[in-house]
Amino acid sequence: MTILEQTIAAIRPADPVAVAEARAHQDRLTKPRGALGALEEVAVRLAGAAAVSPPPLPAPAALAIFAADHGVHAQGVSPWPQEVTLQMVGNFLAGGAVANAFATQVGASVTVVDVGVAADLDPAPGLRISKVAYGTADLSQGPAMTAEQVTAALEAGVVVARELVEQGARCLITGDMGIANTTASAALICAFTGQDAAVATGRGTGVDDETLERKVEVVRRALLANGLTGGPDGAASPGAQTAHAAQMPQMVHIEQKEYKEQSAQIEQTAQAASAMKTLAAVGGLEHAAIAGFILGGAAAGVPVILDGVIAGSAALAAAALAPAVVDHCVAGHRSAEPGHAVALSHLGLRPLVELELRLGEGTGGLLAYPLVCAAVRVMHEVATFDSAGVSDKEA
Ligand SMILES: O=C(O)c1ccc[n+]([C@@H]2O[C@H](COP(=O)([O-])O)[C@@H](O)[C@H]2O)c1
Ligand SMILES: Cc1cc2nc[nH]c2cc1C
Prior knowledge:
By secondary structure, the chain is of the alpha/beta class. It has helices at residues 3-10, 16-28, 38-50, 84-94, 98-106, 147-166, 181-193, 197-200, 209-225, 239-247, 256-282, 285-299, 309-321, 338-347, 363-381, 385-388, and strands at residues 61-68, 109-116, 127-129, 171-177, 304-306, 329-331. α6 crosses α11 (256-282), α7 (181-193) crosses α13 and α11 (256-282) runs antiparallel to α13 (309-321). It is globular and about 65 Å long. Nicotinate mononucleotide is lined by residues 78, 80, 176-183, 204-205, 307-310, 335, 337, 340, 358-361.
């Protein structure tokens, strides 16, 4: 088995017993039932993911910022020069970015991963060089990446997640840096959800009206050029259905349950193959690496806090590869980029923080991290009605 196959095979869906225990425990704590709102669901979610209630405290946390460049920058979709990706990597390594300040605030470590910056980087403490390519090809003209590049970037993300967990991290936070990557994110979101480009495409770092119009057209062209009409799984490949249909005749005598299981397995395999194609067509190297990072965290048994629209679009790919991965994710925030809400609603994730952030780097995930810790701490430390001798509400 490849690293990616092993990782996908290791991801378990939420444990229903732990979920039920966590819900019941929440209801015994000295507070009106449901009074902690969305935080109660976060604690229950983490219990399901860890298959134990209460779930372990998600500390310490590690942020990984995946950096890469984009061929689609040539279409004039970002007001910023491409070299800002490289320059911001230098800023992260020097501790001068917003992500560094927020990481210090919440005690998270910061690792910068070069998966596709269009320049050679010198080795430095805190930098991991896992370069797959010097940026992607222009996704509006055809596939942004080869299948080999997608696999390499996904596996690079898995390896970073594994190593951070081996080094003691108990919560992973996604981060990204890549000028023009909101265009790739919008295209991925359209492909995976079927949403229209005009709805999913936003102003990124702050483009004017004219550039936004061009950006929407670039996303439309990218979907067309790559034969992606969009769909519930981003499964635009006709091969998906053909592979499934081809298996049907041999299955007529198989027991109904077994047939259903095998049928679901075949469908999942087709969906995964299609997700790889979609990533290659309109994704970025950091999107693929972040998808791998999310899968790697889930496989290693730690929760993953997703940052903004780049992470949201990468999570769509991860979920198409391994649907159970969503049970291990927490949506840190909802970015101002409109496609992010589309992605989160498709994933069924509720963002914890809504501050109209549109920075990336992991900033929204880092701000949400103390809320996730607080949600879990409640489960460990708050007294029950019984233990504190507090009268429960009359039935
Ligand atoms: O996280 C987000 O939702 C987000 C929204 C807008 C912009 N960004 C960041 O801005 C850069 C991409 O913006 P753009 O306009 O060049 O596509 C990239 O480095 C992202 O981290 C990030
Ligand atoms: C300055 C700058 C910082 C960023 N951080 C993440 N994306 C970014 C884009 C720009 C342009």
